[in-house]
């Protein structure tokens, strides 16, 4: 990043970059500490782990539920999902291929041995804290504060530097949530979903499964049966969440499926920005990740959900890596509500993911901004669904796919205009970039219009990196990889701009790392 | 002729409506040419759309009459039949509809609304030929779809061609000079001047004195922040050119 | 019928049983059998099958019967000077005198159909075409250039009408054909195969019009050799269910395909325009423009796909546009413009719009004094006409049909 030229008119930009670099530096250091691999997050942590019995059965589910001291209704809910799942078939329509998954070969629950719950952050095993540090995620509140202060000093303006409250999920269990007190003051509930089940059972019961029903699809149903942990956020009426909320998911234990479940509810007029980061260590075996994320935005509420997904993609031959089968859906339940998904997807061996918006409230707005990068033998089938039900609902889809190596990258999206969705609007832009002649880039949009006064527009292009631009950059002295990175950055710019700044630089670095070795 | 009184108007759909015209008063008597100048975003184009009835522009107060008729309640085509013509700042492309077909349909629709007979095909072609020649428009161009693939200057000349064909009673030219080279500007101005008559009024919206050297206005108004803030003779345009809006408006406030 | 035949399709409905019975009555033929098996594997395609989601034959065709309200639409395509081949549910007529440069063979048996798995209803037509009065395969070989247009008509009251035509254009040959699907039969399925050898030029015009009771599946498979030029224009009004499917394979360098279509659907009419173009050779060009206008109770479906395989698809230049107008509330338009690309040095794009007429254009017209209704009619006609511009000599006929429908 070289935008910090020091000229006056860029002062704003400069402060931003300084703050970003503060955070970025950690990520970079973490990466440097592990020079040998491209994948900076591919280390595992030596800690004792407690597993559920291997495989999937009603007993497994009872075990998980008991471990979490769950109420009866939740156990029944899980069992109902499991029974349903047994009758379902794994979907095959996505353009991804993988060896059949043996669901009995996984552990459905893995927790650091010392127990799921920590009284205070000091009780969290040192190894776990170190792991997060390596990932560049400051967990200790003190550190976060220090980091912020440092950043604030360098910022020329008095503008408040952003702070991020972090909930960290290690394998199946949430280990720590920072900034809790301050959030409580604002009335924001931010905790692991297991805790929320205990502390706010009514709230959880009211919203859980109302966006992604138990029987929604194969992987979501599996998740409903075995979800281990995840994050719960509730922002009360009229509250603008005072900081960004963030969850880092990390798979550590071997042969573990991770099934986190996130539920975010924004009450009337509330606002929250939520960041999600994911990493996993390198393994030989493919690991399964089947998360469910449910968002509910009531009247005038706004939820911004950003993801940087960097699960282990497997080695060059596609061995190992994460199967990322995720169901993410937001419900714009109230009028004038807004849900915005932004994702940077660089990891996983196989990705199957369609963050969607149900635009139920009149005048509600859904957005999807995506960068999906595939390299090596990665396969990604990702996109969104915008379901327009309410009047004057608007949606916007910007998708940038980059394929390199021997990978396959598919955009699959649905825009559906219901009969009652007066004056609905959608704009979709889908661009694909191919780097090298052995990868694939695919675009599969489905557009269903049932309103004469709707206005739907879809554009898509597929091209390769321009030789002229590459040459131009190299003539000015950029190395080939650098030139590619520069052009790719230009290609994805529109989406990067949507990311909260803490994520933007990290995302940019990830793009570079993911595309290493893709040219020449 | 055209009388606008204390007009206020908003732009945009219900929730996002912004008030752009803020109590604008202006009168252009028959036979006169008035110029409107003003900084970017002042509301000049908005005024032209409000007067011609574009949807999305809502009048929230005041009045506008043409020869005593309230035009604000009329459909766009009714206003056109009454003689309102807008030369668009950004003429719209209409694929698949040839210029000749378009203008003839418009002319006959207007005549029908006014209870007049349709123009005969030979008369129409004759008239079209004459005007095209005057404007140095290639006959081939008139067979092509409206504005599709036309250069900026060609589009503006085509606006004037339509104006001369339809012989409106009141003309609004919204930045018709922008994008024209000096020769095209002269041609366009000649066309407009040929339209000057005691029964006709004109509102010429422009940024530059240049156009007003060719189309001599009777009065010059300065529009800023949605209202007329200064009115003067042709020399006002010269002063604006020399001192800029800030200089001239500085004293007005 | 034998139980073995009956078992071919899982959970058959009455229509599928009837199709099995018809197949059982035809003389034994290994190629016919392969084609029927390809169909029988899935039976009548339905909404759960990718590519048939919006056009469900199993639901639209519970039984095969003569429509209660029979009637054949008029054929607007001129036949004067053309060579007319007519397929009805019960018979087939063809011109006796053929000019030099065209050879016609009415073969009783089926010919092999390579891509039968991908085109189940094409396979069905291949399996059921023929019988006592009709050819199993009508084969036409073209060597000439200055030839009259061949006109294929599919119409006539009855239960079902099946036809299969193969045309091969030898190097440098030139031909224009037209096809009219005019309804009358409860179910019509045709398979048209066009093979263009090096430098051949071929123009195809398809006109489809039928009532609210007929079900149609018109499938075309096109293969293009080096430098071949294929042009197709379709005007479809739909029926209870109509699918006009075209699959083009560029199999040698420098071929060009133009695939345009317009669909106009009134209440109770469903028109499906489906195309798939495979860029199986370097530097081939495809241009595709589809326009639709739909009224209350009508449904338009557009599915387009460009498939560009690894290596051989380099330098592909392909563009696909689909624009639809929903003229009234209650209209439906479903679209799936798809790109599947495995070669990097390509220029591929698609665009899709659907909704109402452009508000700026409407205002511009009304500012000039054109009344709202008239402005709408003019814009709509111009909108549709764009897709008919490459038709050639039949453009005016198609335009007139579209105009009359819009003026309704
Ligand atoms: N459709 C619209 N929605 C919202 N604001 C608009 C719209 N059209 C114009 N505006 C705003 O109205 C103001 C006046 O615009 P305009 O009349 O075009 O100015 P000008 O004097 O340059 O012609 C500008 O601030 C512009 O941004
Ligand atoms: Mg303007």
Automatic annotation (TrEMBL), chain A:
The SUF system FeS cluster assembly SufBD core domain sits at: 249-491
Entry superkingdom: Bacteria
Q: Which InterPro entries match?
A: Fe-S_cluster_assembly_SufBD, SUF_FeS_clus_asmbl_SufB, SUF_FeS_clus_asmbl_SufBD_core, SUF_FeS_clus_asmbl_SufBD_sf, SufBD_N
Q: Could you tell me the Gene Ontology terms of the biological process aspect for this record?
A: iron-sulfur cluster assembly
Q: Where is the SUF system FeS cluster assembly SufBD N-terminal domain?
A: 184-241
UniProt family annotation: Belongs to the iron-sulfur cluster assembly SufBD family.
Instruction: Indicate what this protein is called per its UniProt record.
Output: Cysteine desulfurase activator complex subunit SufB
- Native organism is Hyphomonas jannaschiana VP2
TrEMBL record, chain B:
Signal peptide residue numbers: none
Which key words are in the record? ATP-binding, Nucleotide-binding
Q: Which residues form the ABC transporter domain?
A: 2-250
Drop me one GO molecular function for this one: ATP binding
InterPro entries (alphabetical): AAA+_ATPase, ABC_transporter-like_ATP-bd, FeS-cluster_ATPase_SufC, P-loop_NTPase
Superkingdom of this entry's organism? Bacteria
The cross-references to PANTHER family, in alphabetical order and at most eight, read:
ABC TRANSPORTER I FAMILY MEMBER 6, CHLOROPLASTIC (PTHR43204)
Name the protein family. Belongs to the ABC transporter superfamily. Ycf16 family.
What's the protein name? FeS assembly ATPase SufC
> What is the protein's species of origin?
Hyphomonas jannaschiana VP2
UniProtKB/TrEMBL annotation, chain C:
Please tell me the species this chain comes from: Hyphomonas jannaschiana VP2
Task: Indicate the segments forming the SUF system FeS cluster assembly SufBD core domain, all copies.
Answer: 153-383
- Please give the InterPro entries that the UniProt record associates with this protein: Fe-S_cluster_assembly_SufBD, SUF_FeS_clus_asmbl_SufBD_core, SUF_FeS_clus_asmbl_SufBD_sf
What's a Pfam family in this record? SUFBD_core
What is this protein identified as?
A: FeS assembly protein SufD
GO aspect biological process, one term: iron-sulfur cluster assembly
Entry's SUPFAM superfamilies?
Stabilizer of iron transporter SufD
